[in-house]
Design goal:
single chain; mainly alpha; 3 helices
């Protein structure tokens, strides 16, 4: 979370938080519990990152020489 809060390391922090929350969702599914809290956290994280840095989600075409 600290990496996500520091502007220079926000992208790495976003990826780490996404992986961690994905593990929470997987653990809930394995434990046969509803994964609603993890899904809500994941959606809010993605929306927040998209609003902060939309260029992070753009896919640029490959340049073949």
């Amino acid at each position: 979370v600290l990496l996500f809060l520091i502007p220079d390391t926000r992208r790495v922090g976003f990826l780490c938080c996404t992986a961690y929350i994905g593990g929470v969702i997987a653990a809930n599914l394995i434990g046969k519990e509803p994964p609603i809290p993890g899904l809500l956290m994941q959606v809010l994280l993605w929306i927040g990152m998209y609003l902060e840095a939309p260029e992070f989600f753009r896919i640029s075409p490959l340049k073949i020489r």
